[in-house]
Prior knowledge:
Layout: E1 2-4, H1 6-20, H2 22-26, H3 36-46, H4 49-52, E2 56-58, H5 60-84, H6 91-111, H7 125-143, H8 155-169, E3 177-178, E4 184-185, H9 187-199, H10 203-229, H11 232-243
Antiparallel strand pairs: 1-2, 3-4
Amino acid sequence: MVRLSQTTLSLALLGMVLLASIDTFFGPLNGPGFTYKNILVYLIILSLAPYVMKETRVEKKKAVSGMFLVMSFAFISVNQYIFSLHKYELLPASAAMLAAAFAFMAFCCRTAAVDKKNGAVTVSPVEFMGLAAVLVFALAVRLYRFDSIPPGIWFDEAVNGNETLRLLYGSEPPPVFIERLTMMPAMFFYITSAFMKFFGENIYAMRYVSVFAGVLSVAAFYFLARRVLHDHALALCAAFLPASS
């Protein structure tokens, strides 16, 4: 067993607060400043405060697994930042960090303790109805005035629409990565092209992709929260956060 003292948890909580404060206190002077979103982030972080008041015991195997999972997320985050710089000379470093992230994640999965008896996920009728209600709410929020917000066709939507049409009617070989204004992997455009085939060549077909992916992400997050929290009521509350985001 690994014992996490109050001092360790307090320092971790303080670090999370400081990390959430970077944009507010160290951002550009003409930025939005302190908003209600900052208050929401602080409330979420401070909700962990009760756990600081007591010592926590964690199995050594799970502690090591969690450490490697955090390291993999850190490497993926750094890789995403490097990728956003659009500098080809940094691609080797980016690829190395991504490979390290996958290696850490694989080691995390290897060391994680798996309970074979509870490996299967069973959903009761009440839980199914609760999850269905959250997903219907997520769908309604994403469909509400999606034809007029944002008004017209936004720049990114126009560029992505042109790339989708180029994929549908162009004579080029199927791309893996699109190096034009989008600077994105091509998988998104293959999905968008399928939606355009079904809903027609219009802006709504492109926005349906975001609606569909958003609702699926809420469902995926619910089962992740259920596996971590071991409580379907808490998992529903957790899934409501991205559903209403």
